[in-house]
Specification:
mainly alpha, 1 helix, 0% strand
């Protein structure tokens, strides 16, 4: 049972490291305006 705990902890640490690298390199988001719903559903009014 402790294996999954170490696995999840390793995933969290890797996410923090990747997020830090992204922030320090000022990469930011590639999709700044993403509207997945508004392009599919037509206006109702």
């Amino acid at each position: 049972m402790s294996n999954w705990l170490f696995f999840v902890a390793a995933l969290v640490v890797s996410m923090v490291i990747i997020g830090g690298i992204t922030r320090l390199t000022e990469s930011g988001l590639s999709i700044t305006q993403w509207k997945p719903i508004s392009g599919i559903i037509p206006p109702l009014t």
